[in-house]
Design brief:
Layout: H1 27-36, H2 39-50, H3 55-60, H4 66-99
């Protein structure tokens, strides 16, 4: 094969060394891990963002004991049910205001 003929030569790829080195952990990864393991972040996810859908995050967090996990799971489930019921009440109130009482 002619080295000047680009179509005839196969593509060669080599892995480059990372600039942070292989032995050191990535700072961004450790920030993500600390955020995911934070009790405050779990509470924010449960009560401000996901509601009952965040319960798996609660159970994966090692900083909560089993009795705490049961307590917060029940509380978040009740909280989510109350929010859904509140949304239902607002929708029904709006419906009756728009179409009148029948």
């Amino acid at each position: 094969m002619n080295p000047h003929d680009r179509n005839a030569a196969p593509i060669e790829a080599r892995l480059a060394d990372s600039p942070r080195g292989e032995g050191r952990p990535n700072r961004q990864d450790s920030k993500r891990e600390s955020w995911a393991e934070s009790r405050g972040a779990v509470f924010a996810m449960l009560f401000l963002v996901t509601g009952v859908l965040g319960i798996p995050l609660l159970w994966m967090n090692k900083k909560f004991s089993n009795p705490e996990r049961y307590f917060w799971s029940i509380l978040v489930t009740l909280y989510t049910a109350a929010l859904i019921y509140g949304a239902y009440l607002v929708c029904m109130w709006s419906y009756h205001r728009i179409f009148g009482y029948s």
